[in-house]
Amino acid sequence: xxxxxxxxxxxxxxxxxxxxxxxxxxxxxxxxxxxxxxxxxxxxxxxxxxxxxxxxxxxxxxxxxxxxxxxxxxxxxxxxxxxxxxxxxxxxxxxxxxxxxxxxxxxxxxxxxxxxxxxxxxxxxxxxxxxxxxxxxxxxxxxxxxxxxxxxxxxxxxxxxxxxxxxxxxxxxxxxxxxxxxxxxxxxxxxxxxxxxxxxxx
Length: 202
Ligand SMILES: C[S@@+](CC[C@H](N)C(=O)[O-])C[C@H]1O[C@@H](n2cnc3c(N)ncnc32)[C@H](O)[C@@H]1O
Known about the structure:
alpha/beta, binds S-adenosylmethionine, 202 residues
């Protein structure tokens, strides 16, 4: 059982998490403007806060998470709401076969800092996108290690804008914009959240 399995059932009870996913979702809709038939991948989807924000605006979302507890919560939400275009998948995004030229958009919220080798993942995500497809990844701006109560499974204390730019360019993406889309207030401090958007050339 990992820490997210334990947190899953009460994940949505923290208003700052719901608010953060909403701010990220709003920014994605504004910057990428998805179309109603798009196939989307959300990795580290968790309980589906971002997935459910984007779901009415796209055709299909594969929502991947490696926490059994989170995927169970997401499956329950899909059942309860009756949405037909969200597909919860239990798996580790770093090892999962994502196929080639399959998605129109890849999104993620607050998960990149849990990824061991982001450079390799960006290359894999690039392959999984159709030509002209978009990527929109949100995560903490570089922090001092105080954001998490425990740093188990935290491989990066956020990212500098330049690092995200290098991951995007290094994998072959055109960089669209990297900007702060939210400030998370926690333990009397403010942690900026960056959204990095890019496009696979046509
Ligand atoms: C901080 S939570 C964010 C959840 C959700 N995106 C949100 O914004 O509320 C990070 C999520 O990433 C998942 N995760 C971490 N490493 C992963 C990996 N290698 N593959 C898939 N999911 C992963 C965790 O299980 C957790 O649900």
